[in-house]
Amino acid sequence: MQTHFQTTLTSAAELRGVGLHKGKSARLVINPAPVNHGIVFRRADIAGSAPIPAVFDRVTDTQLCTLLSNDAGETISTVEHVMAALAGVGVTNAEIVVDGPEVPIMDGSSAPFVEAILAVGLKMQRARRRVLRVLKPVSVEINGATARLEPSEIFEIDFEIDFPNTPIGKQSRRMTVANGAFCDILADSRTFVRASDVETLQKQGLALGGSLDNAIVVDVDAVQNPEGFRHEDECVRHKMLDAVGDLALAGAPIVGRYVGRRAGHGVTNALLRKLFDTPGAWAFDICQEHDVAGLPGYAAPLAASA
User: Fold this and answer.
1) Would you tell me the crossing angle of helices 111-120 and 80-89 to the nearest 10 degrees?
2) How far apart are CA 19 and CA 16, in angstroms?
3) Paired strand residues for 217
4) DSSP 3-state of 67
């Protein structure tokens, strides 16, 4: 069952893959962590690596992914899909150890991370979790892309994208991300790119690990992936997945509504920064029992408290 207590994994979950942008193989281990630890990354390939907290003000780059840095200058990039998985199943505390500069892309979605987490299971901890309540609307606009957070009693996402002259076209979706909805509706939707952009990205040293196994590639009139889309609106679902991961950097589940129009990592991060800079727009609060039904989490049995 879902809970208003903090949670962590019952044991370590391990995944191996390749980084989307640098193309380097990586091993990722999600370890259990104690109460009030939050989500923290560590670089196993750096001797004496310092923690890299998964919080919004540690974001130092949002070009095609979300990159976190610590005070020692150590970085970890492409964190959004694993962050979305942790938020989507309701994990409060975890240490994520990666032996490279980038979280492995896996199949381009959050599904492999969700499956690995659920395979080891979650356990309740002896402390109540907190939530972030949005108390008044805050919005940002950057180069025609907009994002807004509004008060709500539940966590909702309302997203719209428009890619004219591609098979993606205009897509929109609005949903409450609660009671397993992330796992059931958003988790398996993959990242996507226009074929015309691939060569440009690779010349910039990006997308070096990209392939049809970990991204949807679209031409003007066709999808290059032989299997096509997993869902008719897979692309907007993926943008919502990204938003769940980037909003998880608030440090607590958000009780509020997120509205995105053509928004990406940079816009969502700018929105969180503006939220926290706006007096009276937010408040951390202890999660109440009535909050649980409107928040992300997987409706599966949890192990007893540690």
Assistant:
1) 40
2) 10
3) 193
4) strand
Owner of token pair 């609660």? 178
| Residue type (1 letter), 257 | R
Beta bridge partners of 139: 148
Beta strands 122-128 and 130-134 are unpaired
At 36, list the tokens. Answer: 């009030």
Mean pLDDT across the stretch 137-152?
98
Q: What is the pLDDT of residues 79-89, one digit of tens each?
A: 999 999 999 99
238 an active-site residue? Answer: no
Determine phi and psi for 107, rounding to 5 degrees. Answer: -100, 10
Q: Is the dihedral of CA 89, 93, 99, 103 positive or negative?
A: positive
Do the Cβ atoms of 85 and 188 come closer than 8 Å? no
Q: Name the catalytic one among 4, 238, 265, 290.
A: 265
The amino acid at residue 161 is I
Instruction: Tell me the pTM.
Output: 0.96
- Residue from 105, 282, 263, 296 nearest 186 by CA: 296
Listed in sequence order, the residues at least 6 apart from 6 whose beta carbon sits closer than 8 Å to its beta carbon are 35, 36, 92, 93, 124, 125, 127, 128, 129
CA distances from 25 to 22, 41, 214 (A): 9, 17, 14
